[in-house]
Every structure is written in structure tokens, then in C-alpha cells.
Design a protein that fits this description.
By secondary structure, this protein is α+β, with helices and mostly antiparallel strands. The protein is built from 6 helices and 6 strands.
């Protein structure tokens, strides 16, 4: 499960990357069912980018793959609630699933960059920030959901999320 604090962290890193690249974006984070957790847009962004960012996140959650990966199969049942109320599923680069041990926790969608690759770079920055944050001892997933994190010989228990598993394969 993604928390609001985690979604906001992802968005902050995403918008920071866009500023670093001298661009403007809209970014959204949804849960595994496509329901919106958090959304932000930078000043000056085109209004079309709002719907695109949300749609890319939903498509990434539904396909468990990058939203621009055309060969990925969309699982409409997993996001039926979001698609049932008319939210789009947009198959363009800029949406990435947020995964842990093969399970989709949610997804990020970014739109408004100069290119699709810029959108995806910003989304990746958000995922990387979340992976690093979750690896910190005081924010490890075990500490948030499974009770205290155990240590053995100065090492964390094997229950933590590794960066490699948090960043989805594109």
C-alpha cells in the first residue's frame, strides 16, 4: 500500500526533476486500483496534461508495465473503479508502475514535458526517491506495516524492499 506521504514524496522528486530539466509537468500517483492518491501540476502547464498524467498512471497500474509499452496487456478488472467513472487509460510514455516484490502498489503518471522521454525521466526520478526513502531504516516497509524492523548482526532483516525491485522494468 502506498501512503499519502509516499505519494507526495514521489511527486516532489518528480517536480524537482522537471525543474532541473527546465520544464513543467503535471504528475499523479494512483493506487493499484487506479484511484488517485495525489496530484500536482506546475505553473504554466497545459490543462490537457492533467488528464494525460492521470491516464498514464492508471494505464501503468492496469498493465503492471510502463504506460508506453504497447505490448503490455491492460487488466481492466484491476482498475475497474477508475475506468468505470470515466477516467482515461493513456498508453503513452510517462507512466510507470510502483512495484514491490512483483506486486503493484500503484503507479505514477507524468505529462507535459518537452518529450515523452522527459516525462518518463521525471517519473523515474520519483520512483528512485521512493526506493531510497523506503530503504532508510526508519522508513523501511517493515517499520510501516509489519511492526518493528528486525536487525541481525547489524543488517536489516530480509523483508526490506530493494531499489531494484521498487523500480519497475521498462
Amino acid at each position: 500500500m502506498l501512503t499519502l506521504a509516499e505519494a507526495n514524496l514521489v511527486l516532489a522528486a518528480t517536480l524537482s526533476k522537471a525543474q532541473e530539466m527546465k520544464g513543467t509537468v503535471a504528475a499523479s500517483v494512483c493506487d493499484a486500483e487506479g484511484s488517485l492518491i495525489a496530484f500536482q501540476r506546475m505553473d504554466g502547464i497545459y490543462s490537457e496534461s492533467i488528464r494525460m498524467a492521470i491516464g498514464k498512471a492508471i494505464a501503468a497500474a492496469a498493465s503492471k508495465a510502463a504506460s508506453g509499452k504497447q505490448s503490455a496487456v491492460l487488466d481492466y478488472r484491476s482498475v475497474w473503479n477508475a475506468s468505470g467513472i470515466g477516467l482515461p487509460m493513456i498508453r503513452r510514455p510517462g507512466g510507470l508502475p510502483i512495484m514491490c516484490s512483483g506486486t503493484v502498489l500503484g503507479a505514477i503518471g507524468v505529462s507535459g514535458g518537452a518529450t515523452d522521454q522527459d516525462d518518463e525521466r521525471c517519473a523515474t526520478a520519483g520512483l528512485e526517491a521512493l526506493a531510497v526513502w523506503r530503504l532508510r531504516e526508519d522508513h523501511a516497509p517493515g517499520a510501516m506495516t509489519d511492526g518493528p524492523l528486525r536487525k541481525r548482526g547489524g543488517r536489516r532483516a530480509a523483508r526490506h524492499i530493494s531499489c531494484g525491485s521498487m523500480l519497475s522494468k521498462r
